[in-house]
Amino acid sequence: MSLLGIRDAAVKIGLYTISGRLTIDELSSATLPCILHWNQNHFVILYKVKKGQKFYIADPGKGLITYTMDEFKQHWIETGQGEDEKGIAMFLEPTQAFYDNTNEHETRTEKPFKFLFGYIKQYRKYFFQIILGLLVGSLLQLALPFLTQNIVDIGIKNKDISFIWLILIGQLVITLSRTSVDFIRRWLLLHISMRINISLVSDFFIKLLQLPMSFFDTKLMGDLMQRIGDHSRVNSFLTQQTLNVAFSLISFAVFGCVLLVYNRLIFLIFLIGSILYGGWMALFLRRRKVIDYELFEQQAINNNKTYKICGILAYWTLCYC
């Protein structure tokens, strides 16, 4: 997609556009939002500038991200040095035709993660069995503290060896049952994850082959290969991380009930600690998201350089060997 293509599309829906090269000072004082040429390979939207030091970007591939002045320059500036540093920006203003088009066409909003859960839907029977296994494992785990308590309060206190052996055998049976349930659950997860991974990669190639040749002119080979490699992360999210979160919530509820029965003060400390832990993790999610995108870009660049080196070595081998 080019700036001219965006301009033609904007005019078609009733937007007046003006484009040019601007300095950061000119951009900060301009009316926002506007479209920026980003990293010389795609376009983003600048929707807010805070005190000329923080720039709020809406990136189609990354979401809402905040950049400092130096980070913003690295991505946007294309020409010049010092005060003459400039980048390309496009400003849009709605006309009456835009509002007429808005009234004629209804906006459709797609549900997030809808396409991902489409892969889960066809294996819902297996996921039901896995969730059932999680519940059974949690219930078995719930019985262990009470059995241990009975060993101390009844068996040791009354010196009843037969009762202690009975409880120990019961704990052994529960442990073996949990191990069996966990084995079946992991086997089902392996079965599902392999099939989902194959479906993800095949759908990616189908989508890739339907794209026009102009798409590959702006994409690095390393970027495409990195996206193929990242399908394992999507697969892990669907088959492992989601279930781990569900298991953690179930365990939290189970042990919370146990602590509430034993001592409310300990339960309150446990609850406050869990909330603080969750808040601490959520505090860095946005920053981790930005770092993850930056890591993806760097890995894509490194992969592309690796492929170029391999291509040069292969060419050199064919020519001189």
Automatic annotation (TrEMBL):
The keyword Hydrolase is annotated on this UniProt entry: yes
GO terms of molecular function: ABC-type oligopeptide transporter activity; ATP binding; peptidase activity
Q: Does the keyword Transmembrane apply?
A: yes
Signal peptide range in chain numbering: none
Q: How does it sit in the membrane?
A: Multi-pass membrane protein
Locate the ABC transmembrane type-1 domain: which residues? Answer: 130-300
Q: Where are the transmembrane segments?
A: 126-144, 164-184, 242-261, 267-285
Q: One GO BP annotation here?
A: proteolysis
Q: Where in the cell is it found?
A: Cell membrane
Principal localization reads: membrane
Supply the alphabetized keyword list: Hydrolase, Membrane, Transmembrane, Transmembrane helix
Matches recorded under Pfam families: ABC_membrane (PF00664), Peptidase_C39 (PF03412)
CC terms in the record's Gene Ontology section: plasma membrane
Protein name per its UniProtKB record: ABC transmembrane type-1 domain-containing protein
